[in-house]
Design brief:
The complex is a heterodimer of chains A (433) and B (235). Chain A has 19 helices and seven strands. Chain A has 433 residues and is mainly α. Chain A folds into three domains: 175 residues, no CATH class; 108 residues, no CATH class; 115 residues, Cytochrome Bc1 Complex, Chain D, domain 2. In chain A, a hairpin with a 4-residue loop joins β4 and β5. Chain A is globular, with a radius of gyration of 23 Å. The N terminus of chain B is likely disordered. The radius of gyration of chain B is 24 Å and the shape is globular. The chains are: A mainly alpha (433), B mainly alpha (235).
């Protein structure tokens, strides 16, 4: 559902914010009052700020722009990339280190073009290839919200990128290949709900940042949009949203998609790994109509052909001894919760049978769940989550390969067997920042 | 749409809803208990916190609820660095932590036999000396001054020191020294651990892990004795 206010430009608001910011970070309150008089009664600034806060949740700004134990939006979170470590900047209205001297135009240009206020090209760790879809009105609202926060006087941390990646002019090439500037254009053949979902998924939600494979240059191609990929450095696999054998949502009831995105749990499984963070910090705060719109849109993504559609039946490739070993471990360690039939006790103990997350081509997530366990995020829709224990400390690589193989080929699951070589490197996968 | 088609559609829809409800109803739900929810802790701490044979992990059953709550918070906030725990607790909140802490604090389970003491008698004697009398010259108070004459701990925030593996105890003292374990400020244990030598840590750990422990061991009620230090974790 498109909100009518979203589509309307708000020149008065922009002016108000510009004036308000011009007074500097210390005069926020009086400036806000000043802004109010410009906006008039029909567009109270408080309401715009509230909408900006909501949109900042939708964009999950806080996740990257806040350090563990740090002040919200003050930046400093180290982001390890294959090219070196980037540190997120302070986006509180501090005039020295934050965006205190920015105008609404500067902010929109940054989101829209991937260039900072002084013209510096941003590294695509900032998901501007998605944020470029955000409307001017939404950008202004987010800016109003960020400008309303208490300035935090915390300096920014220099990036630590290796040569040659520390040369920002390389980004010209990257942008030519992978960045297409432009606000979201609604599809007139679809209804408002679908378009709202598409806008949120493609823009602020920046879902494709993880759910489209990243190549060696850190770019992703449109042709593979939402087709899934391994998230660099995190060693979690972001499943395909278009493949029914992964997280492809074609055969999911809307209710289950909404539950998974908003509560973090559903009768088909719970979120884990990086998606737990996304639900915890972002999606749970979205309204039901917005999450539903995203679900409606996601369900209509065109289905891609499975890369392993022609792969042989996994079960025929497994030796009897591996299967026996996997089965014995499963009965001893897993069946109490997930059931001897793999159907689980949903939603607390998720089903493993016909669970796309288990069957999908990459076994990375299934292996990591056994190694590391996990608690889904605590949300309003799931206040006391059930947890799965880690097994890394009590199982060998052989045992984990055997039990994950068993789970991937049992109860009609069509996954491929897992080797010891796939398990071992994941023991070193990062767990916490 | 005429009336009869509409009626049929409603019947079909209702049937579909009932069938799908049935398909879900056949599956048992996970028990709606806190015990079922904390099975995420089981492989290291035991199903009800009784501990495991793995010397790296502590028994948590029967520890003071305030102490357990503080640790859950410390792991989530990164004051205590142990990635597998930091990861598990990252997106859980205080009310739920309190419920988990209360659950494990209320468990009354038999203790495992004390660890066979592998260090020398001399080292154990030194450990006994440190635990019961401290080391005045280095400014190390005796453990018993806070953790109690029988090392049972005291409500709400100071844990008992018996029934733990020596490797676990020494790893914690080392972590405090190295700055990978912190408690709420003022962090008394950090101050004390910083004054300990490695040899003293080994002596203390070996002595504590060798102590006989009765199943009746419980943390003393708050105020049973006056603790000599002002610590952030003990109000």
């Amino acid at each position: 559902m498109m909100k009518p206010a979203v589509a309307k430009p708000m020149p008065l608001l922009a002016l108000a914010i510009a004036l308000w910011c011009a007074t500097g970070s210390t005069g926020t309150r009086s400036a806000a009052v000043q802004a109010q008089t410009f906006l008039g009664a029909d567009q109270p600034l408080a309401q715009v700020i509230k909408r900006g806060e909501y949109l900042a949740y939708a964009g999950d700004c806080i996740a990257c722009h806040t350090q563990h134990d740090g002040q919200a939006f003050a930046g400093g979170l180290p982001m390890v990339t294959p090219f070196g470590t980037l540190y997120s900047p302070n986006i509180t209205p501090d005039s020295q280190w934050g965006i205190g001297n920015w105008s609404a135009d500067d902010f929109y240009n940054m989101l829209h073009t991937g260039r900072s206020r002084n013209g510096t090209l941003l590294y695509p760790a900032m998901p501007f290839p998605a944020y470029t879809r955000v409307t001017r009105a939404d950008s202004d609202a987010i800016f109003a919200y960020l400008s309303s926060l208490k300035p935090v006087h915390v300096p920014n941390h220099e990036n630590e990128l290796r040569f040659p990646y520390n040369n920002r002019s390389l980004l010209y090439g990257w942008r030519a290949l992978y960045f297409k500037e432009g606000e979201f254009k609604p599809d007139p053949t679809r209804n408002a709900q679908w378009n709202r979902g598409a806008y949120l998924v493609a823009g602020l939600g920046h879902c494709a940042t993880c759910h489209t494979a990243i190549n060696a240059l850190g770019g992703s191609s449109d042709a593979k949009a939402f087709a899934g990929g391994l998230i660099p450095m995190q060693d979690w696999y972001a499943p395909s949203l278009t493949l029914n054998r992964e997280a492809g949502l074609g055969d999911w009831p809307i209710e289950d998609i909404v539950g998974l995105l908003k509560a973090g749990t559903s009768p088909r499984g719970a979120v884990y790994g990086p998606m737990a963070e996304v639900v915890h910090n972002s999606l749970q705060y979205l309204t039901d109509p917005d999450v539903r719109a995203m679900a409606v849109y996601l369900k209509t993504l065109p289905e891609h052909q499975a890369a392993n559609a022609a792969a042989p039946d996994g079960a025929t490739q497994v030796s009897a001894s591996v299967l026996a070993k996997g089965s014995a471990i499963y009965q001893a360690q897993c069946s109490d919760c997930h059931g001897t039939d793999g159907r689980g006790k949903p939603p607390g103990y998720p089903p493993l049978a016909q669970n796309h997350s288990i069957e999908m081509q990459s076994a990375v997530n299934a292996i990591r769940m056994v190694l590391n366990g996990g608690y889904p995020p605590e949300t309003a829709g799931n206040t006391r989550p059930y947890g799965m224990p880690p097994f890394a400390q009590i199982m060998t690589d052989e045992e984990i390969a055997a039990v994950v193989t068993y789970i991937r080929i049992s109860w009609g699951n069509r996954g491929q067997p897992v080797t010891v070589g796939e398990v071992n490197p994941l023991r070193q996968a990062p767990l916490f920042d | 749409m005429n009336g009869s088609i509409r009626a049929k559609a409603i019947v079909l829809l209702a049937t579909a809803l009932i069938v799908s409800a049935d398909a879900r109803a056949q599956l048992a739900s996970a028990p709606d208990t806190i015990g079922a929810r904390v099975q995420g802790c089981a492989t290291c701490h035991g199903r009800a916190g009784e501990g495991s044979r793995d010397e790296n992990f502590p028994r948590i059953a029967g520890k003071p609820a305030g102490y357990l709550f503080n640790q859950l918070q410390n792991f989530r906030e990164g004051r205590r660095s142990y990635p597998p725990m930091n990861y598990l607790l990252a997106y859980l909140h205080d009310d739920y932590f309190q419920e988990m802490a209360n659950f494990f604090a209320a468990q009354r389970l038999p203790f495992a036999k004390p660890e066979h003491n592998v260090t020398t008698a001399a080292a154990t004697t030194a450990g006994e000396q440190l635990v019961h009398r401290g080391d005045g010259t280095s400014g190390i108070p005796p453990c018993v001054a806070c953790h109690g004459p029988r090392l049972t701990g005291i409500q709400p925030g100071i844990p008992g020191l018996v029934g733990l593996h020596s490797r676990y105890i020494s790893a914690q003292l080392e972590a405090w020294r190295a700055g990978t374990r912190h408690a709420k400020s003022p962090d008394c244990m950090q101050e004390i651990a910083a004054r300990l030598t490695e040899a003293q840590i080994t002596q203390i750990s070996a002595y504590l892990a060798a102590q006989p422990v009765s199943d009746a061991v419980l943390p003393a009620p708050q105020g049973t004795w006056k603790t000599p230090l002002s610590c952030g974790s003990q109000p």
